[in-house]
Amino acid sequence: MQVIRATKIKATPKKVRDIVSDIEHAGEIISGIKKIEVLKQPKDKTIVGLKWKETREFMGKDAIEVMWITDAKK
Fold first, then answer.
1. Which of 3, 9, 17, 24 is the most exposed place for a label (fewest CB within 10 A)?
2. What pLDDT digit, counting tens, does each position of 50-71 carry?
3. ∠ Cα 42 48 50 (to 5°)
C-alpha cells in the first residue's frame, strides 16, 4: 500500500528552507517539540555538522532523539 499526501505551501523555496533549517527555533514552529538542545554548532555559516538533542511528545510520552545534519544542498 502506498499513501501519498501533498500540501501546498504559499512561500518561496528560500523561505521554506530558512524555516526548516532553523533547528534552534523549531519548537516555536512544530507543536510536538518540547525542547531543543544544540550539542554541536558548525564553525562556518552552513548547517552541515549541526548536532542537537530534541525532546518531543510522542504517543503521550517524551521521546528524546539526537540528530545531526550530515549533508545539505541549496
1. 3
2. 999 999 988 889 999 999 999 8
3. 55
